[in-house]
Amino acid sequence: MVDRLVLVDAGGLGAKASLASLFAMIWLNNFPSGLASRVYSRFILFNPANRDPDHARYSVAVLKGNGGKKAFRQGKGAAVSKMPGSALRRVTHDSLIIWGEDDKLFPVGHGEAASKLMPNASFVRIPQAGHLPLMDQPDIFNDAVVGFLTEGK
């Protein structure tokens, strides 16, 4: 049973990647390597130096493993599909939507719009953060999540 829901830069709330980020994603998914991962980091982080090296290595290892490219290929280049507004209005659980203000994959406006459709949602915009605000601004991110999960307890 879900009590509370936390969504972080969720592509299902609206995915519209730039052509450059799409190219980097295709390169990484088809030819996984450290170089492709470093290039892709420019699109998922405000400051690519914030990427945990273990995350980069893990991402490449998953893509090189059996089935690692499946989500990308099954989605015909998109790992997610946008949820319709009618579905978002039915999400009645307390929800927190967190978005990196500088997300180059999914614009922050998608998260803001979704938070207005979901009846019990709150929205946190994290400055100087990209698609992975947990890496760009870990303290702000953690404070938002812990505050939301412990609220009223």
Automatic annotation (TrEMBL):
Keyword Phosphoprotein present in the record's keywords: the answer is no
Protein name in UniProt: Alpha/beta fold superfamily hydrolase
Q: Which PANTHER family match?
A: ALPHA_BETA-HYDROLASES SUPERFAMILY PROTEIN, HYDROLASE
Top-level taxon of the source organism: Bacteria
**One GO MF term attached to the UniProt entry:** hydrolase activity
- What InterPro entries does this protein map onto? AB_hydrolase_1, AB_hydrolase_fold
Q: Which organism is it from?
A: Alloalcanivorax profundimaris
List, alphabetically, the Gene3D superfamilies matched: alpha/beta hydrolase
Locate the AB hydrolase-1 domain: which residues?
Answer: 77-137
Transmembrane segments annotated in the record for this chain: 6-28
List the keywords (alphabetical). Hydrolase, Membrane, Transmembrane, Transmembrane helix
